């Protein structure tokens, strides 16, 4: 699927009210409202969504794209809501409202959703020439009063420091754009090379709603991308693990008390029948667009610990799930790492659904 076609299928919605009851939750939908972001060169969270959105549970991300891995671990909604990083009623006072070190999160807007985007590190860069084309994709066609485009100053190292106002210089300010949905301009950064951060302020026209957008660029392609040093670190522990496994034969006999865990497992099934209804689930719609939406499912254990759970979202047609395993068209089971919950403990999963966002309920079954 082409980038523009994929972009046209996604848009951001306002959060929806959730009416909770024991074991199930009904959701009341609010009107959908799409937003936008710089898609070329991609912003930090849009780039993570574009590269890993369909494979975000792949553990190789930790090695190949460590900053995206950190972002997904901190809050995956920052990627699913890549087009919602904005504030309202700033009145053009960007430098007074957005603190130093928080430019990439828009001053921790919707905290903690976008907070990790301020984290210094080797974010994946897009290589660009000294003069390149910038594209901002606006699914809602809000229009733009202006795009104000900055670049980090020579000598600033975003792998070690969060971006501040004193670290950037203005390279271009555009005029107004109509409600076309694509706002494009050429950007020139002469005499520069290597890693830099492109910081774009999009002042939407429909109301006082500025967007704050960080894109990592490699001017002239002269900087080294982050994945190169990562494998080096990986190869070092490998031999360490091998010798550790070799002496293991000695402790193996000691582990003959394997029967001890067996009695531990025996009590576990005992509470399970007793607590067959020992979990509850809630569902809310985080974003929606014409024909689709993003849903968040929250699971809470009852008075007994859980070793697994299964949630059926009644009224949903689910096409993709994360932090859980999809079975059928409306059921999500726990992933390997979030099935065990202490009494009263909570975890969550997310999904992409199609169809109506009204009348959704969630029912949890302990496994």
What would you note in describing this structure?
The chain is of the alpha+beta class. The protein has 2 domains: 41-231, chitin-binding protein cbp21 (Coagulation Factor XIII, Chain A, domain 1, Distorted Sandwich); 276-366, Immunoglobulin-like (Sandwich), CATH 2.60.40. The protein contains 11 helices and 18 strands. The strands form 5 sheets. The chain has a 5-stranded mixed β-sheet with strand order 4-10-9-6-7, with no helix packed on it. It has a 4-stranded antiparallel β-sheet with strand order 11-12-17-14, with no helix packed on it. A hairpin with a 2-residue loop joins β1 (17-21) and β2. The longest helix has 9 residues, at 44-52. The protein is globular and about 60 Å long. 36% of the residues are buried. Residues 1-33 and 227-276 have low confidence and may be disordered.
Strand order, largest beta sheet = 4-10-9-6-7
The number of distinct structural domains comes to 2
Give the uncertain stretches in residue-range form: 1-33, 227-276
- Mean model confidence by pLDDT: 81
Look at the structure and give the CATH class of the largest domain.
Mainly Beta
Overall geometric form: globular
The helical percent reads 10-25%
Strand content: 25-35%
Kindly, what is the distance between the CA atoms of the first and last residues, rounded to a whole number of angstroms? 38 Å
The largest sheet is:
5 strands, mixed
Counting H and I runs of at least 4 residues, what is the number of helices? Answer: 11
Broad structural category? alpha+beta
CATH topology of the largest domain: Coagulation Factor XIII, Chain A, domain 1
Provide the succession of SSEs: HEEEHHHHHEEEEEEEHHHHHEEEEEEEE
Please give the number of β-strands. 18
Using the 3D structure, state the CATH architecture of the largest domain: Distorted Sandwich
As a whole number of angstroms, the C-alpha radius of gyration is 24 Å
CATH superfamily of the largest domain: chitin-binding protein cbp21
């Amino acid at each position: 699927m082409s980038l523009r076609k994929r972009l046209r299928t996604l848009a951001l919605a306002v959060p929806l009210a959730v009416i909770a009851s024991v074991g199930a939750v009904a959701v009341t939908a609010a009107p959908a409202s799409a937003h936008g972001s710089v898609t070329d060169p991609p912003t930090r969270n849009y780039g993570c969504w574009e590269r890993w959105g369909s494979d975000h549970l792949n553990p190789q991300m930790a090695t190949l794209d460590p900053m995206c891995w950190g972002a997904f671990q901190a809050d995956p909604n920052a990627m699913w809501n890549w087009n919602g990083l904005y504030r309202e009623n700033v009145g053009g006072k960007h430098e007074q409202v957005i603190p130093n070190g928080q430019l990439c999160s828009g001053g921790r807007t919707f905290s903690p959703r976008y907070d990790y985007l301020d984290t210094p590190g080797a974010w994946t860069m897009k290589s660009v020439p000294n003069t390149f084309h910038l594209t901002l994709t606006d699914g809602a066609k809000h229009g733009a009063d202006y795009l104000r485009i900055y670049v980090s100053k020579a000598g600033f190292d975003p792998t070690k420091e969060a971006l501040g106002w004193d670290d950037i210089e203005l390279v271009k300010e555009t005029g107004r754009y109509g409600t076309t949905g694509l706002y494009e301009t050429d950007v020139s950064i002469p005499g520069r090379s290597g890693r830099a951060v492109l910081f774009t302020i999009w002042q939407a026209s429909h109301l006082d709603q500025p967007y704050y957008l960080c894109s990592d660029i490699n001017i002239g392609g002269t900087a080294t991308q982050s994945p190169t040093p990562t494998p080096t670190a990986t190869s070092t522990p490998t031999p360490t693990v091998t010798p550790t496994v070799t002496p293991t034969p000695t402790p193996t006999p000691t582990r003959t008390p394997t029967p001890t865990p067996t009695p531990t497992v025996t009590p576990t099934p005992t509470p399970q029948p007793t607590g067959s209804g020992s979990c509850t689930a809630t569902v809310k719609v985080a974003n929606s667009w014409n024909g689709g939406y993003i849903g968040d499912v929250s699971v809470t254990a009852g008075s007994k610990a859980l070793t697994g759970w299964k949630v059926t979202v009644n009224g949903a047609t689910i096409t993709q799930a994360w932090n859980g395993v999809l079975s059928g068209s409306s059921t999500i089971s726990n992933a390997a790492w979030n099935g065990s919950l202490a009494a009263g403990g909570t975890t969550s999963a997310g999904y992409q659904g199609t169809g109506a966002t009204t009348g959704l309920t969630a029912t949890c079954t302990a496994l």
